[in-house]
């Protein structure tokens, strides 16, 4: 029979009971983690969000209470009253915060029972993620997940305290806004009061935070939900959280310095002391050395440029790449000569998936160079390659000959894959690097026009302004990303604050004046009325938390995440709605063609 609390109030959380409470009478409430019957004494581990404490039921002292304990099962909700006592010598649990003490129970209330569990509430459960997401309310009872969400709360508080202390004002921006499609697809919301028109859920507050700078708020921040309708991976969700900030009358150095302080404050909450300033490298250096613009600098396997050494090579693939103004890049895998043919085929498949036409390789063995391309390489070329790569017997050399972008990307992806295969990527530590001076534009051959690498409101470097009309691909942007352990955790830029420059950038991007007015009209109008120089950044809070806590997926750091198909296994969203609701918003559902 279930009982009412009848005015009971708990004295503290289960995990807060300590040796300082010995001989005190306390009241606790929580969930039964496990029950152990020793044939007389019954022991129960009682759990709440702060941890576990051991309860003792003694039939010789409290017979009626002991009888109730017989009927308790995992996840029953109970309230108990009893005296704190020291555990008998030899029974202490050093792995438990409350391991020195136990509660001799004198009263108990059974507040609720529990159906049989679909899985055990313990951190090392081996149940599938889909089952855990379906029963997320049970999954969230696990100490590891509760700890991550508590730390997330502390990080959010540290963010607010730091930014408020540095003159930032928290301002909420609209969730129902105008669709300005760029990059990912928008989530659209039909308007009942304006038939045929739609709101969009914001992919970021970009336009509104620039409006706030024009409005004179000077320093803005927000911990904000953003939405993108895109294919999902371990580090992507359809709805995600950003730490968003913008500042007026600043340059790149001001933004970077302030935000390094924020990152230090955030990691301090996790017990990690960081040293600033963080290292920096240009986009050109990052892609040249590591093949990607989010380099993991915790390990070697750096790319080397062999174009000068192999420009006249007898190997046709190399010579033709150079003739087409491409490059020859390579990386040296220490000990990689032991890779099997299947390993090399797997690497070739990865290379091709990222744009390569194939993958040239060389194994350096005791017998010499083993490779289909070895016969095309001269002695001086081999010596030059060996010196440039620091290669030795037992190593594997991988080559990419193509346009610089393709060669860097291919070897960069292979670097990451091989690092994982060989287990040389450190599991511990936090290595930050700022990547700066991104290209302003890239050329989209499918659309036959330039597109913005970041977004169309990013300002070009002052010294590159004159190249806008003559050499757009060499123009660098005042953009910057913060990379942590090979993951981009934040990105931003100094914005365009002059109407004439913004108009020029739209022209470069092939956005006609009418289209610009349609998509961004309210911002373009606002830029006419005394816009200060400004810039900002946004950090992915979910991704930061995943790295801090060592989680394999950001889903473990979000209370109610979506699956990789953008569904909620617990609530079963999205779901069909009845016809009346659709009629109210003038929507007709069309069945997808088979």
**Can you tell me the number of structural domains?**
3
Mean pLDDT: 93
Low-pLDDT ranges: none
The biggest sheet, with number of strands, parallel, antiparallel or mixed sense and barrel status, is: 8 strands, mixed
How would you describe this structure to a colleague?
This protein is an alpha+beta fold and 594 residues long. The chain has three domains: 14-112, OB fold (Dihydrolipoamide Acetyltransferase, E2P); 146-282 and 433-579, Bira Bifunctional Protein, Domain 2 (BirA Bifunctional Protein, domain 2, 2-Layer Sandwich); 299-425, 2-Layer Sandwich (Gyrase A, domain 2), CATH 3.30.1360. Helix content is 28%, strand content 24%. It has 16 helices and 22 strands. The chain has an eight-stranded mixed β-sheet, with helices on both faces. It has a five-stranded mixed β-barrel with strand order 1-2-3-5-4. Strand 20 (479-484) and strand 21 form a beta hairpin. The radius of gyration is 30 Å and the shape is globular. It starts with 24 loop residues before the first strand and ends in a 10-residue tail after the last helix. The mean pLDDT is 93.
In a few lines, what is going on in this structure?
With 594 residues, the protein is α+β, with helices and mostly antiparallel strands. The chain is 28% helix and 24% strand.
List the helices and strands and how they pair.
Layout: E1 25-37, E2 42-48, E3 51-57, H1 63-70, E4 77-86, E5 101-112, H2 129-134, H3 136-139, H4 143-165, E6 169-170, E7 187-190, E8 198-201, H5 206-214, E9 219-227, E10 239-248, H6 252-269, E11 280-282, H7 283-290, E12 304-305, H8 307-310, H9 316-323, E13 327-333, H10 341-353, E14 360-365, E15 368-370, H11 379-389, E16 396-402, H12 404-422, E17 432-436, E18 441-444, E19 449-452, E20 479-484, E21 487-494, H13 499-508, H14 513-526, E22 534-540, H15 541-548, H16 579-584
């Amino acid at each position: 029979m279930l009982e009412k609390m009848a005015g009971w109030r708990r004295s503290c959380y289960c995990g807060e009971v300590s040796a300082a409470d010995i001989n005190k009478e306390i009241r606790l409430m929580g969930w039964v983690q496990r029950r152990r019957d020793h044939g007389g004494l019954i022991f129960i581990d009682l759990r709440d969000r702060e941890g576990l404490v051991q309860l003792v039921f003694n039939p010789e002292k409290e017979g009626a209470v002991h009888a109730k304990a017989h009927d308790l099962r995992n996840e029953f909700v109970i309230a108990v009253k009893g005296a704190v006592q020291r555990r008998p010598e030899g029974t202490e649990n050093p792995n438990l915060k409350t391991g020195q003490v136990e509660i001799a129970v004198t009263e108990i209330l059974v507040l609720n029972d529990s159906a049989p569990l679909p899985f055990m509430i313990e951190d090392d459960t081996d149940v599938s993620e889909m089952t855990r997401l379906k029963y997320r309310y049970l999954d969230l009872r696990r100490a590891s997940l509760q700890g991550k969400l508590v730390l997330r709360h502390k990080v959010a508080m540290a963010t607010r305290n730091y930014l408020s202390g540095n003159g930032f004002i928290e301002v909420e921006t609209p969730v129902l806004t105008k669709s300005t499609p760029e990059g990912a697809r928008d989530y659209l919301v039909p308007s009942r009061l304006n038939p045929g028109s739609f709101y969009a859920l914001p992919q970021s507050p970009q336009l509104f935070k620039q409006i706030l700078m024009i409005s004179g708020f000077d320093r803005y921040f927000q911990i904000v939900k953003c939405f993108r309708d895109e294919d999902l991976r371990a580090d992507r969700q359809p709805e995600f959280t950003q730490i968003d900030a913008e500042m007026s009358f600043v340059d790149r150095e001001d933004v970077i310095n302030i935000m390094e302080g924020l990152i230090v404050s955030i990691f301090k909450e996790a017990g990690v002391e960081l040293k600033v300033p963080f290292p920096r490298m240009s986009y050109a250096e990052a892609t040249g050395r590591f093949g990607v613009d989010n380099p993991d600098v915790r390990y070697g396997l750096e790319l080397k440029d062999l174009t000068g050494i192999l420009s006249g090579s007898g190997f046709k693939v190399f010579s033709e790449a150079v003739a087409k103004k491409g490059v020859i890049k390579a990386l040296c895998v220490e000990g990689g000569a032991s890779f099997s043919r299947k390993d090399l085929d797997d690497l070739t498949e990865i290379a091709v998936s990222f744009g390569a036409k194939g993958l040239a390789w060389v194994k350096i063995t005791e017998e010499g160079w083993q490779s289909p391309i070895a016969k095309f390489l001269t002695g001086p070329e081999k010596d030059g390659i060996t010196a440039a790569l620091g290669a030795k017997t037992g190593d594997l050399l991988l080559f990419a000959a193509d346009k610089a972008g393709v060669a860097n990307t291919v070897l960069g992806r292979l670097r990451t894959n091989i690092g994982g295969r060989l287990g040389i990527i450190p599991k511990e530590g936090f290595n930050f690097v700022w990547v700066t001076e991104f290209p302003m534009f890239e050329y989209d051959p499918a659309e036959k026009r330039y597109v913005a690498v970041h977004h169309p409101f990013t300002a070009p470097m002052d010294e590159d302004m004159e190249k806008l009309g003559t050499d757009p691909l060499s123009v660098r942007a005042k953009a910057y990303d913060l990379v942590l352990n090979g993951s981009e955790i934040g990105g931003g830029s100094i914005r365009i604050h002059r109407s004439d420059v913004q108009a020029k950038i739209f022209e470069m991007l092939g956005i006609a004046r009418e289209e610009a007015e349609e998509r961004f009209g309210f911002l373009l109008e606002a830029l006419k009325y005394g816009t200060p120089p400004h810039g900002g950044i946004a950090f992915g809070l979910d991704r930061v938390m995943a790295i801090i806590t060592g989680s394999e997926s950001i889903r473990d750091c979000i209370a109610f995440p979506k699956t990789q198909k953008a569904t909620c296994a617990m609530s079963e969203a999205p779901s069909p709605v009845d016809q009346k609701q659709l009629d109210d918003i003038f929507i007709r559902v069309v069945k997808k063609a088979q």
